Fold Pentraxin family member.
Amino acid sequence: DLYRKVFVYRKDPSDAYVVLRAQLEQPLQNFTLCLRSYTDLTRPHSLFSYATKAQDNEILLFKPKPSEYRFYVGGKFVTFRVPEGSGDWEHVCASWESATGIAEFWLNGKPWPRKGLQRGYTVGVEGIILLGQEQDAFGGGFDVYNSFSGELADVYLWDVGLSPDKMRAAYQSLRLPPAVLAWKSLSYEVKGDVVVKPRL
């Protein structure tokens, strides 16, 4: 249970990452990913990377620069332009629906204009989920200049699209529906220089 705790990635650039263990029973037609990050990085960095043997960017949440998030599903991506960080925690949720190919992006409890992405696609199972590095190969192929440095918390993955109410609840850290990955019952393994500390 990592309630009120954070992962601190101490070095920049870094070869460290956290492996998350999730039981995905079947391929995903829908999902919602939420997490909170706190960093002063201005270079590109990876927040959440889910790779399968067939596709290294099966799900990827990537920040190429302070004013932009990229959300990948099955190797294709859409870009959401955001205001440059005000030096505070940023809470993001990204959700995707295969049937319509609609990608939603929420920043700090506010929805951005929806975009189209990979309609009819299915996210594969038996993947590797990493926080803080981008996989360019299954479980590896890291570029340290895409590594995360700073603090990460409140990581959740649901195998459904969350309603707007639940998206706002995630931002406010309220009660949330059961998740495939949940911060309060996270199975994880730290690789390298990452420290678990109380949230400041």
